[in-house]
Amino acid sequence: MAARWLAMAAALSISSCTGIFQRVLPKEPAACVHLAVGDELRVGAAERDITPAVGGWLAGFDMARASTGIASPLKVRALVLLLGDRRFAIVGIDNLGVMREDGDWIKAGIVGFANGDVFLCASHTHAGPDLIGLWGFYLLSSGRDPEYVGVVRRAVAEAVAEAVAVAAPANLRLGEGRLPAHGLVKNANRADCFDRRVVVLQARACDDERPLGTLLHLACHPEVLPRRNTEVSSDFVGALCDGWRAAGHGQAVFVNGALGAMISPAVKDRSQAGAQFLGDGVRGIAEAALATARALPVDAIEVRRRDLYVPVHTMGFRLGRLTTVLQRELYDGHARSTVGWLRIGAFEAVAVPGEMEPALAEQVRAELRRPDLVVFGLCDDELGYLLRRQDAEDPEFAYERSMSPCLDAGERVRAALTGQ
To answer: How far apart are alpha carbons 140 and 137 in whole angstroms?
Structure first.
């Protein structure tokens, strides 16, 4: 019997490579450039609750982790910028990650926005519902609830619509703080190798200086709550964003950064109280950065997008896709994903579809000659870990390698971003 199952698994993995149920790989990836210019920038922000019912499967860590309670609510948070005849949105979702196909479907529910002008960024909490499908009850059973994906879609559409409705003429301010070398965030694989920047981009109303919305950015896995946790939680992200609002700074939208391999919380208290501690610590750094922030004139907003196709070599990815645990289309053995570039005045960010390793992010900044470049991680897709090939082949990164579609996924994303 064991031999039969092994033979079946081998047949499935072979068929997943030979083109069954697959599309043709395009000769040229789709690409677009959107540019908005104007004299008046309008900004708005809003949020919606997406806390699930208790009992669903949680993503990350181990399979068969059904939720048993709610430690903190999950939310969708949207920041919209309107300039000239275009609308742009940065949306943060309290979830481990959203696959490209679901991301496109979610964006299709937003009225008045082009797909490429919406940046859909997962916080990467390990205490939210499984939107990918890898963490069901047993191996090759899906933990993804299609009805909950619909809940997220409606919440995103509503949050963006409200943000547009309340948008007002705005001025932007850009600030940057630094995490301490120890005590809040760490690299669990390579000590001290992490991006210590905390970036704050806030919009204030032109008439009375009231806060209209704030982008908060840093790189760290939201996994203060440990592997044994079974309560739904936004981890430190909710504590950070809710604390920001409570302090009078208005709506916050969190976007994660180059958190791969393995940027994690350094707090000792692995509970909801520890998540609050980390959120409060980051908020203090962000508030100090806001106090010294400089004006950011915005004469233009520019978006560049480019699809890329990444070969799927990892056995788990192949079997998961073929057994429909992973709702992912393949193109001659390649997964379709996307990279992006966003410029708001002098503020620049690149959108990467997964968890980029910080040394690779530094290489991208160096090749583009943009040392202040911000990385929007887990944006529009969750491809898994994005490593330099030298790290992907290092035994130290065996787990990260198993959660990446191929050994050079990071290099392919880098090349798509830099053109090299």
So the answer is: 9
pLDDT tens for the chain, 420 residues long, are 344 334 334 433 433 343 457 899 999 999 999 999 999 999 999 999 999 999 999 999 988 999 999 999 999 999 999 999 999 999 999 999 999 999 999 999 999 999 999 999 999 999 999 999 989 888 778 999 999 999 999 999 999 999 999 999 999 999 999 999 999 999 988 888 899 999 999 999 999 999 999 999 999 999 999 999 999 999 999 999 999 999 999 999 999 999 998 999 999 999 999 999 999 999 999 999 999 999 999 999 999 999 999 999 988 788 787 777 888 889 999 999 999 999 999 999 999 999 999 999 999 999 999 999 999 999 999 999 999 888 888 898 888 888 899 999 999 999 999 987
| Nearest CA-CA partner of 350 in 365, 366, 335, 369 | 365
Do residues 78 and 158 lie in contact, with contact meaning Cβ atoms separated by under 8 Å? no
Locate tokens 């994690």: which residue?
Answer: 264
Shortest CA distance to 66 belongs to which of 129, 145, 151, 133?
Answer: 129
> What is the reported pTM?
0.94
CA distance 331 to 321: 12
Q: Which residues contact 208 (CB under 8 A, 6 or more apart)?
A: none
384 Ramachandran zone, left/alpha/beta (phi>0; psi -120 to 50): left
